[in-house]
TrEMBL record, chain A:
Gene Ontology CC: Las1 complex; preribosome, large subunit precursor
UniProt GO MF annotations: endonuclease activity
InterPro entries (UniProt xref): Las1 (IPR007174)
Protein name per Swiss-Prot or TrEMBL: Las1-like family protein
One Pfam family of this chain: Las1
A single BP term in Gene Ontology: maturation of 5.8S rRNA
UniProtKB/TrEMBL annotation, chain B:
Domain annotation Clp1 P-loop: ranges: 43-244
Protein name: Uncharacterized protein
Protein location: Nucleus, Nucleolus
Keyword ATP-binding appears in the UniProt entry: yes
Biological processes per GO annotation: cleavage in ITS2 between 5.8S rRNA and LSU-rRNA of tricistronic rRNA transcript (SSU-rRNA, 5.8S rRNA, LSU-rRNA)
Amino acid sequence: MEALLGFKEESTDYDQLVISKPSSSASYSYKLVPWLSWDEWLFVDESLFSISPESVASAFRRISAWRSRGCLPVVIEVTASIIEIHQKDPHFRKDLSNDALDNCRADQSSDASLSDEMLAMLYCMAIMRLVNGVVEKTRKKTEVSIAVAADAIGIPRTLIDIRHEGSHRELPALEVVRSASVKALDWLKYYYWEPQKKAIPFHGNETADIRTEIRSKFHELAFCLRVKNTPPSVSSKVKEKRGSKKDLTKILKSLVGLYASFSSEVVSVLLEILLNAISISDSSKLPVNTQKGPSLHISLNEWKLVITKFSNKEPELLLALLNAALDMIETQEAVLFETGGVRTSSDHRAEILQVEHLSSLFKWLVGNFEGLKPHLEKDSAPEIKVSSGEKTISKAILMELLRKCLVLSASANNQLMDSAVHLAQLTGDNYLLGKLNKLSSLVSSNLDVTEEDNSLKHSTNVFKNEDESISEASEKLEMIKQRKMKSKVVKRTDGDAGNTNRWVLAKSWNPCPIGMLPRAVGSSGCLPVLDFDTVPEKVSQLLGRKENWELNQCSGKREASSDIQLLDNRCVKKLRETEDGCVSDSEHVLSTEDVSGHLMIGGVWKKVGEEELLAIKSAVRIWPHTKKPAVKIEPHTKKSLL
Amino acid sequence: MASRSEPENPSPNIYIPPEWSEAADCIAYDSVTSPPPIAIVCGAKNCGKSTFSRYLLNILLQRYKKVGYLDTDVGQPEFSPPGFLSLTVVDEVTPDLTIPHLKTPERCLFFGDVSSKRNPTTYLNYIFALYDYYQKEYCLFGKSASPAKVGLPLVVNTPGWVKGVGYDILVDMLKYMAPTHVVKINISAESKNLPCGAFWLDEDHDGMLNLIEINSARQDSFNRSVLVQKDARLLRDVRIMAYFRQCFSSNLNITTIKELAHVLASHPPYEVPISSIKIRHLHCQVPGSEIFYSLNATIVGLAVSSERTEDLPWCVGLGIVRGIDTFKGLVYVITPVPRGTLEKVNLLLQGFIQIPTGLLQVQGCISPYMSANVLSAS
């Protein structure tokens, strides 16, 4: 067996099919489930027992998707069956309110044909499947009788009797099976739905609880590292708590686990912690008091270690942290900009201080972490990599970050400017670096002016000037990038030109779990959105009329009515929501994340027609840095529209 | 077997009894070449049908350049991963009889389950379609073809489901193909065997018939032929993993399931626009709003649907839908099928071929469909 096809896996490891998570608090094991996340399960739980027929119907739909995956737990299947039968049973319909009754009247007429015998048969079958299905799973070898096994898990005796009667004797009366079905549902809730709901980690907790959990884990990690790095003599007090390596990995694991489900919370908590650390070190420039015994205060340097440890496990963290910091600066600045005149000066000062702290934090992050160094073009040769190659950030992402940083640094933010220069250094692009250095000196000379004259009115003028110089600079930056990317772009469009190909090898791919989509950095992946309505309308139309579509696609024959649709199929419109501050309708830095023919409008992806596209194009202007533009139009848009 | 210059027996664990070699020789040599022999091998589970079929293939290859192999065992096919029905043209001897080898079939159809019981009618239609294809391409050379052309002999391996519906299916298959030889392998437990004689024929039948009854090769200390117990599920998972192992160069050192799972998670997949493919579930009704919930992280058959609706969609291989990006409108598929062949694929067939859980558990990269905190009750 082992020799079979060259797989020498230790068969024990595989036979179990369930691996236990090492060194975790509970003895978890992994099981194949049909749902993508517990949220999906909770959605079904809630909808299935809802009084709204629409909700119940949506639960049924999801359950049929689960069934099609082949690993639907029998308890879920039977719960759905019983509820579906209840919907067909006039007895339960009477209980509905008049409104709901009206809603269902349409399909009720068809159900009316179900005789009492047929209803009883349906109930009976559901109950038989429940008893057999559940008992089979739990029945021990020693328990010969089903009744004994059923008793062990508390299935009501009525259900066992109905199973027996239904299989071997007369079909039980409708009244009997109907009331038994209610008991069955109650038992299923008691036996499966409620305990399973309780077993879901963090379920029912408010976000605040999760944040507290995350915060305490970070502190644990920090202390653990501190203890580890302090010579034993000093830390005699905490000797018994000496963080062993095991503890450390345990804490790290749970943090990584938290990050997997609550990445944004983890990032924001960490940012909060770091800001706090910065403001403390800022306000008390007095002799450092951390040496006075094991104080609760954790210095920035200690956090550095924490972040290093964590981002070794979860390389995306650093990038997320940087992005979060920039986003926060951006919102703060927007607030400053808009309410500048109205707010009291103390508020104002606090906000300015906040921005300062954020900027210095950003600078500190950029300056201190090696993880940001871009890796050189990863060779696509499939090798088993010891994941070291996957931990670094690609140059394109770094550029994106740099651009964002640069745009924000427009508001005379020296530290961000420095960070931008540092980022440019990391990209290893000397030409870019030179340009940025010049820009930086320009900004700082402007800064001198600002510092001389502190009046707010004056500084807004300066801001305006800077805006201009910055947008000029960003444009230049764009041009530089274009030049850099040009060779690639040419290659790409060549490829696209002959591209009637359906099947294309993904150009860049970060490892991620099967069933997830890759993140920019790291291998944790992100959960996909699988709702059908997020998919372009045309797809649903196409799925509806297969044959027509095929005719269009293959033979190229055009029906007048389907012209526009055909256009949509054929043309790869590359529209994309972006975060940067400029729009270019000439060649542009290509991203692999193009969305064909769709536009994010108000948070929803919408199909965009040719005319709309042109209208948008003409309406697009370069915005000052505080506002985000709606679209960027990719280079081959025009081409492909022809 | 020793009589002919058979290559050294490279699979010492396999014992070919004299009875078996006589039967194989009879089919290969005591038959006319036109029409070529068509042999169906049948018998209960684990009695050695596949081993005999492999052996028979090798013997036939001594007389014929090429031999057709129609595999109707969807649970454990010979040359393809589970869930497939296929016709393979074999032109070289398989030296090792212990191991099933993956080969690219001439034609295959994706049934999408490991047993015919889910849909016997479709199952039979698929087999008939493959048999018709064989007849058309390899037996009935039109009048224009050179008369010197020799038809291709065919070996048909059948599933071990020989009772109830399984028996009915087997009878339908035998009637449809009207083979020149039927090899029936018996085991000692009489009750598990197929009925004696030409059980599939009506009483008034009087055509040519070669029924060869042999006994299972495995025997216990009492000289009774016994069944070889196999862990069918494990075998299937290993076949599926071996199939996806082909995504990588053979000189890449992948020896364990863990390593394979790891390289698969890192492997750049093919991306295909959702709008340019159709998605169909073979055994389930999936509501339109749920197709991606149903499709994500499953194994699919990659098929080519033809313009004519009555034609069955020929399949070119298996893929893992490793991700779906509904915003970009892309489906990401991992498959060892070469790009050129893939280009024709416009249909993803979902079935119940479950992705081996070993492939979903990668250290630090565990699929969301492998969940912790699941109540054991479920």
